[in-house]
């Protein structure tokens, strides 16, 4: 008897940031190498890209942003280190955070003409203290909690060694356990496992080795995040590696890895 296939959500972050990212996501979703994308609704390319997402059979979510000044409608943003400090000291205004999340929800619904399928955070801010409180308040009041899911960053595998594995666990320690407890209490689904953390260096070869490890180790129901773009943006520090990710994800080698590890790219099973 063959191994049971693992259902994996392949999620591209940062849709709407620029046209380079948008084109990569749209192409990869069309050929079913992606099953989800997380959207920066304050990004310059969000209004033009949203309409093209509507026809695709993928999960489309809100990538909550509190760390980058993407446009004039970005009412609140702080450098990541400062935001973390304020969150852990409980010095953020939760009512203000709720309003900012609502604005980003409004921008999502205005252009997608529907509610988000899921929520996560740019640089994982959605799991920080106070920010997760604001997110849960919005979910409970504004949406049917059975119909949306939230990204968990909890890694239940050991797919990478040394520093990269440490980075993944550090991200989870920023609030994943507390967020998951709140989500269970409110009946909000979340992914069973998480991967995709690395230092965004090494080109396509490094990304391929990482992907091999992730696919081998993750559980059924895992989410693997990625950050593809068709071409690099000179204003984007990840631009070169985004192009490398895109090249690998569209190629035959990724398809071969999915087969080898009995993985199927699917939408979230809630």
Automatic annotation (TrEMBL):
Q: Name one GO molecular function term.
A: hydrolase activity
Which cofactors, by name? Answer: Mg(2+)
- List, alphabetically, the InterPro entries matched: Glyco_hydro/deAcase_b/a-brl, YdjC-like
Keywords of this entry = Carbohydrate metabolism, Hydrolase, Magnesium, Metal-binding
Question: Signal sequence span per UniProt?
Answer: none
Q: Is RNA-binding there in the keyword field?
A: no
> What Pfam families does the annotation carry?
YdjC
Which GO annotations describe the biological process of this protein? carbohydrate metabolic process
On whether Metal-binding is a keyword of this UniProt record, the answer is yes
Indicate the transmembrane segments per the record.
none
Identify this protein by name: Cellobiose phosphorylase
Q: Which species is the source of this protein?
A: Advenella kashmirensis W13003
